[in-house]
Amino acid sequence: MWILHITDITFIELIISFTLSFLLEIMIAILILPRIDPFRETRPGEIRIIKLHDFQGGLTTGVLTLFRHSLFKSIIFIDDEDDSITRTIEAHELGHATEHHPIFLELSIIFLLSIIETLIWLVSFGYIMHCVVISIFLVTKTVLIILSAGIAILLFMRVAESRADAFACKVTGKSAYDNLVESLRRPYGKNIKSPEDAPLWSKIFHTSSRNAIETGDPLSFTGIWEFPVVLSFIASIIAMIRFNSIFIIYPLLFLGTLVISFLI
After folding, report:
1. Can you tell me the distance from the alpha carbon of 58 to that of 51, in angstroms, rounded to the nearest whole number?
2. Euclidean distance between CA atoms 77 and 209, whole angstroms
C-alpha cells in the first residue's frame, strides 16, 4: 500500500514552484544587498579590504549586482596587524574573493531556502485542498531533502576552503601551511598542531592537509568515501520522492547508487 500511494502534486509542479521561488529570491538579493553598507560604498568588480583592530582571522563576503561592468561586489574583513600570519590569512581570503566563493555560498543559501519554502508551500496548499495527507513519510522525505541540500553545501564549503588555502600557498610560499596552523592557534590555543586538532566547528570546514595546500589539489583532503556517499545520498532521495515506502525503497536506492558511484 505504501509504495503505490502517489500524491496529486506532481514532480513537475514541484520543480516549477522551486524555480520561480529561486529566481524571485535571487532578484530580491540583487536589488537589496548591494545597497546595504558597506557594499553600497564598494564598486562593482572591486575586492575591497577593510582592516579592523583585534579582528580574529578573516572573513570574505560578496553579493550579486546588476551593474554592466561586473556582477559581483566583494569585501574582505581582516585584522590590521602586519605580520606573516595576517598576510597569509589575507591571501587566503583573496582566494575566496577571486574565485567568488561567497557568491556561490549566497546562491547555495538561496537554493536551500527555496527548497524549504517550496516544500512548506506545497505541503500547506495540498493539505488545505485535501490533496496531501500529513504523514510520517511526508515529514521524513521533507527532512531528508533539506538535509541532502545542506550536506551538499557543506561539501562545497570544504572544497572552497581548501582551494583558498592553495591560493594562499601560491601567493605566500610553502610557509602558508604553518602560518594557517598558527592562525588557528590564536583562538584555539597552542595545542593545535594541524587543522584536525581544531574544534569540530572549525574542523568541519578547514580540513586542508599540507599536501592539499602545496599541490593545489582541493580534493586530496577528502576521504575516498565522501563524494560517493554524498552523491548517493542525494540521488537516492531524488529517486524515492514519489514513494512512501521509504524504509524499504530508500536503503535499496542508496546502496545501489553507492555501488555505482564507487565503480565509476
Report:
1. 10
2. 25
Beta-strand runs (E) in 23-128: 47-52, 58-64, 72-79
In whole angstroms, what is the distance from residue 199 CA to residue 184 CA? 10
Side-chain-facing half-sphere of 32: CA atoms under 13 Å: 6
Collapse the DSSP code of 72 into the 3-class scheme (helix H, G, I; strand E, B; otherwise coil) and give the result: strand
161-193 pLDDT, tens digit each = 888 888 888 888 878 888 888 888 887 888 888
CA atoms within 13 A on the CB side of 188: 20
pTM beyond 0.85: no
Placement of cell 496531501 in the chain: 132
Distance of CA 65 to the CA centre of its chain: 20
The single residue listed with the C-alpha cell 505504501 is 2
| Cβ–Cβ < 8 Å for 65, 34 | yes
| pLDDT tens column, 191-206 | 888 777 777 777 777 7
Q: Are 166 and 218 in contact (CB under 8 A)?
A: yes
